[in-house]
């Protein structure tokens, strides 16, 4: 049962995502968005503004793309581990395409008076979704090479905090509604769990055939 519990988590994440999509497409003003947006609102030229502005750049597609390329090169050249390299490459590229497709389908306009220049549609947040996919795969593939459980826990918690801060920064900069962030996390989690477990299945079968 525990072995397949990830499927239940994926299902719950997808249910949450489609619920949020349904609510967004109803074009109603959502109380959740209003409350959370006020909670994390910041003024321009303040210390919180400067902090979140710096954090939000860590989730930009160009930054994640460059770091993803470095991870792929590490797996390819140094580790010579080609299956994880392929999964990492396909995972990031596929996640980006999926995010853009849903945005163009949903066509949710971004909040007014945002504090950063940005374009495109709002739902779901690419920063939240791709950030979660990226750091999930880094945690799975790269942290396997880290020795010492304490260091793994510290790095893992650090990744989680960074993903959360990236999402909060998008709300603070008023470039996304909170439901965009939550939907990005939900879809990113479902995508990552599915991808990692498909990788485990392929790897197990390849090892089984060799034996």
Automatic annotation (TrEMBL):
<dbReference type="Pfam" id="PF01569">
    <property type="entry name" value="PAP2"/>
</dbReference>
<keyword id="KW-0812">Transmembrane</keyword>
<keyword id="KW-1133">Transmembrane helix</keyword>
<protein>
    <submittedName>
        <fullName>Phosphatase PAP2 family protein</fullName>
    </submittedName>
</protein>
<feature type="transmembrane region" description="Helical">
    <location>
        <begin position="150"/>
        <end position="169"/>
    </location>
</feature>
<keyword id="KW-0472">Membrane</keyword>
<dbReference type="InterPro" id="IPR036938">
    <property type="entry name" value="PAP2/HPO_sf"/>
</dbReference>
<dbReference type="InterPro" id="IPR000326">
    <property type="entry name" value="PAP2/HPO"/>
</dbReference>
<feature type="transmembrane region" description="Helical">
    <location>
        <begin position="55"/>
        <end position="76"/>
    </location>
</feature>
<feature type="transmembrane region" description="Helical">
    <location>
        <begin position="122"/>
        <end position="143"/>
    </location>
</feature>
<feature type="domain" description="Phosphatidic acid phosphatase type 2/haloperoxidase">
    <location>
        <begin position="83"/>
        <end position="196"/>
    </location>
</feature>
<feature type="transmembrane region" description="Helical">
    <location>
        <begin position="181"/>
        <end position="199"/>
    </location>
</feature>
